[in-house]
Design goal:
Number of strands: 0
Helix content: over 70%
Distance between the termini: 93 Å
Strand content: under 5%
Shape: elongated
Number of helices: 6
Length: 208
């Protein structure tokens, strides 16, 4: 006789599956809306001067700006050198002091615009890092709770042999955020206090 095939599990009701899909879609929409709301709120905090600097930094970061700069410098030099050979008036004779001053001023403005944008983005990165830390700690707490519930279920089931699991006991304890931050601070302070060993100078002939 052939062994009887195991009975297939009964199909789940379609209404329950649709409800689960709708719940997942709602949760995803809420997460996307929260992220978009965060960026919109941060965008509204930008002042007018900050917007001008960021637009300037975006423009100078394009390859077209490098090409325009090279063309302007080349035309500037050619016009002044040509005017010198023809005998006309040179508005910036060699060594092109005005050109050097304009390039220096432009470099200062570009550096200021780039640094202002980087400072704002660094602030956003810090906020995202803090949010990631909070989400990680919350996930760890949920995982510890799930392990605790599974361990209770295992002990309550009569057909499962009860055994001691030291790893499961340790994982049931959720992490304390204050202890984590204190450990990070101690490690950072210990790393900053480490100094390289001083070298003992020796004689030229190799004798100590």
């Amino acid at each position: 006789m052939r062994p009887a095939k195991p009975a297939a599990p009964p199909p789940s009701p379609p209404g329950l599956a649709n409800t689960a899909l709708e719940a997942d879609a709602d949760q995803l929409s809420q997460n996307i809306a929260a992220v978009l709301e965060f960026y919109e709120r941060e965008e509204k905090k930008i002042s007018g001067s900050q917007r001008i600097l960021e637009r300037l930094s975006e423009f100078v970061g394009r390859p077209a700006f490098l090409g325009i700069t090279l063309i302007v410098v080349a035309v500037w030099i050619v016009v002044n050198v040509g005017a010198h050979w023809i005998g006309l008036f040179e508005f910036d004779p060699a060594p092109f002091v005005w050109l050097q001053g304009l390039i220096g001023l432009g470099a200062m403005l570009i550096a200021t615009a780039v640094l202002a944008r980087q400072n704002r983005l660094a602030g956003l990165a810090d906020q995202r890092a803090h949010l990631d830390l909070k989400v990680t700690l919350l996930t760890e707490q949920k995982a510890a709770k799930l392990i605790h519930l599974l361990e209770e279920l295992r002990r309550d089931l009569p057909n499962v042999r009860n055994r001691d699991d030291s790893d499961a006991v340790a994982l049931q304890q959720s992490m304390n955020p204050d202890l984590v931050l204190a450990a990070l601070d101690e490690r950072g302070e210990a790393g900053s206090q480490v100094k390289p060993a001083a070298k003992v100078p020796g004689n030229v002939d190799g004798r100590p």
